[in-house]
């Protein structure tokens, strides 16, 4: 499947700036996207799904060569060849930001559990990003973007030795037109 880059997506300059702020160490991450309107998207072999407008958070880990920098640069850019489930969704969604840790533990599963318990969360595609584990999904839909400070608090409450979580956000306003109802959901 060949994909085209959406006109509102990251510029090459912004992609370089964002990826320059991410370490090459191994770690775990949450990547946040925004979908401006309802859309049917084919997710590889998982099939076609109707995605509601809002924010989508995906949990993952980067344990291979190149670590977080390599994996997140892949997720930030729109690939012509789809490798992971997220590659099918990425061209349709705007990158909002990334939360990550360079802690050597694998936190993607604990973070998926934390996000799954968030008030108002939905899991639009069972198994997305979780084909190699027992998690229900690693991909979550929110009407409002969760605040990183709340995510950090939940980590401290639920994880015995919580990692230090850092954030990388887009420097430019990522939304060409954002309804007031959703704008009020942007929290730091």
From TrEMBL:
Per the record, the domain of life is: Bacteria
Q: Name a Pfam family for this protein.
A: DUF123
Q: Which PANTHER family match?
A: ENDONUCLEASE III
Supply the name of the protein: GIY-YIG nuclease family protein
* Taxonomic lineage from the root: Bacteria, Pseudomonadati, Pseudomonadota, Gammaproteobacteria, Oceanospirillales
């Amino acid at each position: 499947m060949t994909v085209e880059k959406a006109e509102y997506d990251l510029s090459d300059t912004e992609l370089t700036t964002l990826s320059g702020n991410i370490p090459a160490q191994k770690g775990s991450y949450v990547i946040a996207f925004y979908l401006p309107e309802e859309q049917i998207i084919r997710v590889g072999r998982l099939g076609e799904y109707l995605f509601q407008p809002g924010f989508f958070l995906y949990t993952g880990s980067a344990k291979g060569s190149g670590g977080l920098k390599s994996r997140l640069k892949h997720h930030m850019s729109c690939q012509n060849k789809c490798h992971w489930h997220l590659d099918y969704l990425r061209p349709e969604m705007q990158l909002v930001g990334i939360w990550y840790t360079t802690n050597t533990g694998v936190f993607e599963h604990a973070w998926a559990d934390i996000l799954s318990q968030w008030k108002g969360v939905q899991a639009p595609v069972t198994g997305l990003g979780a084909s190699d584990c027992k998690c229900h999904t690693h991909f979550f839909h929110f009407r409002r973007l969760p605040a990183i400070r709340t995510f950090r608090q939940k980590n401290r409450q639920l994880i015995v030795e919580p990692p230090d979580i850092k954030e990388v956000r887009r420097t430019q306003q990522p939304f060409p037109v954002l309804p007031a109802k959703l704008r009020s959901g942007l929290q730091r």
